[in-house]
Amino acid sequence: MTKVEVKKLHSISGHKDCVYVLEQGPEENTVFSSAGDGVVAKWNLDDPENGRMIAKVPASVYALCYYAPRNVLIIGQNFDGIHLVDLESKKEVGSIQTGTTAIFDIKVVKDRIIVALGSGEVQVFNLTTLALEHQFKATDKSVRALAIHEELGHLSVAYSDNFIRTYDLSTWKLINEIEAHKLSVFAIRYSPDGRYLLSGSRDAHLKVWDVFGRYALKTSIVAHMFAINHIDYSADSKHFVTCSMDKSIKVWDAETFNLLKVIDKARHAGHGTSINTLLWSKHNNLLVSGSDDRSISIWKITF
Q: What is the DSSP string of 176-227?
């Protein structure tokens, strides 16, 4: 079995509430974070003690999306809508009302902003005009996460009614639906090679779906003790990580789906409460995690 060494490099305590999102920044060594305090911050992984506030909004921010072609950071402010911040001018360049509901995820593809809402709606906006182009609703239960397969033109949507539904990115028609888990689906992620869709749920199971086999179930793993909150892949695509309400991060082999390492408080001075978000940076293979304990940790992972 592959030997994995883990070293905690830094713990950042810049937020005053639970950290919900980590998002890749414009430079390889930068990361954005957002939290329950309404603060959106930018961090340099080489100098993590000196973060910079990008924005402050009156409500929690569960969703961030950096769109490199426009150098725009899209911020989902709960119960208000989304805000677009131009990172060069450092000014807000647009805002969109999405209804008085939580915003759980934001993705951008081909200048279209796709927003996952607590009302069960998915809304699609034109990034240039900010006009609503399309919206659809499969259930009254929350839309928790989005994943895009650009090659196939698929948008997979994770719902709190335990289903994953996949839509065509051109027509927005339903392609496939799976009653994927026994409880709410909190995390979904396509593998970098596009072969698999991974899902994590409140039921603590990690499931792997065969994309080219009509999303048939490949494997189901009892991966954590409590809800799985997020999934991310390493830069070389050989490994992925999951994080959980059980306060642990787990490192997996992306080909065999074998568990390689558990990162937790007892063994690695990890987080003391639920871990909500992960970002596995290309910069020196650093793994970044954010938690309900209000901290952001930076880990060096060596194989």
A: EEEE--SS-EEEEEE-TTSSEEEEEETTSEEEEEEGGGTTEEEEEEE--SS-
Please give the span between the terminal C-alpha atoms of the chain, in angstroms, as a whole number. 11
Q: For the chain, percent helix, then strand, then coil, each to nearest 5?
A: 5, 55, 40
Which token pair is 12? 């950042």
Cα separation, 140 vs 260, whole angstroms: 38
The amino acid occupying position 28 is E
Contact predicate 295/8, CB 8 Å: no
Q: Please give the full DSSP string across 49-93, using - where no structure is assigned.
A: TS-EEEEE-SS-EEEEEEEGGGTEEEEEETTTEEEEEETTTTEEE
**What whole-number distance in Å separates Cα of residue 296 and Cα of residue 11?**
6
Which of 301, 275, 281 lies closest to 18 in space, CA to CA?
275
Each residue of 222-265: pLDDT tens digit? 999 999 999 999 999 999 999 999 999 999 999 999 999 999 99
* Residue 2's pLDDT band (cuts 50, 70, 90): confident
Quote the DSSP letter at residue 142: P
